[in-house]
Amino acid sequence: MHMMEIIMNSIHADSKNIEIEIEDSREKNLIEMSVRDDGRGMTKEFLCKVVDPFMTTRETRKVGMGVSFMKGLTEMCDGSFDIESKAGEGTLLKASVRRDNIDVPPMGDLGEMMMQCIMADEKIDFVFSYKTDSDEFIFRTDEVKKELDGVSLLEPEILMWIKAYINEGIVRTKEEL
Fold it and tell me: What's the mean pLDDT in 84-109?
């Protein structure tokens, strides 16, 4: 859910491209995550305050918990947190947690997460990669759109295929673990 909140921030920032990377490394004993977008970005002043849960650009509620929760998770799980942004150019959020830390939550259904992101705005080109020490799985919506030749990604059968395809790719990537 933390990743989903971060990706939704990118979606709401009018991004055209969003890259989500997850590396699950036993060798490094880390799970590293990043979300990069080409959206509106943030001013230096806003970037300094972005981890404050009461600092948000949302109009529907007065709190923005995604970034502050992600930062809290990394601190609780002996990881690291970094966010870079430039107004008009986009944002890069990087976070990691120590893989064997008892407080690391389960990864969850990443196929479902990506399906929900696509449903939020199918015009965005998403690149999702999941990497282990021995393999990597990459999913790109621009490639799927090209194959579909004008058919919407929001068709229920296509969304269900995307979810299953991503989850199967992750399972294959983890087989060596």
Answer: 95
Q: What is the pLDDT of residue 52?
A: 58
Helix H or strand E encompassing 22? strand 17-25
Give the C-alpha separation, 81 to 73, whole Å.
Answer: 9
Three-state secondary-structure class, residue 78: coil
Q: Is 114 helix (H, G, I), strand (E, B) or coil?
A: helix
Q: Label residue 72 exposed, middle or buried (CB < 10 Å: 0-12, 13-18, 19+).
A: middle
Tokens 């799970």 belong to: 31
CA 52 to chain centre: 20
This prediction has a pTM of 0.89
Q: Which residues neighbour 175 within 8 Å (Cβ) at sequence distance 6 or greater? A: 135
Q: Where are the alpha helices (DSSP H) in 13-150?
A: 44-49, 66-76, 110-120, 141-148
Rounded percentage of the chain residues whose pLDDT exceeds 70:
90
Alpha helices in 16-80 (DSSP H): 44-49, 66-76
Kindly indicate the confidence band of residue 56, based on its pLDDT and cuts at 50, 70 and 90. very low
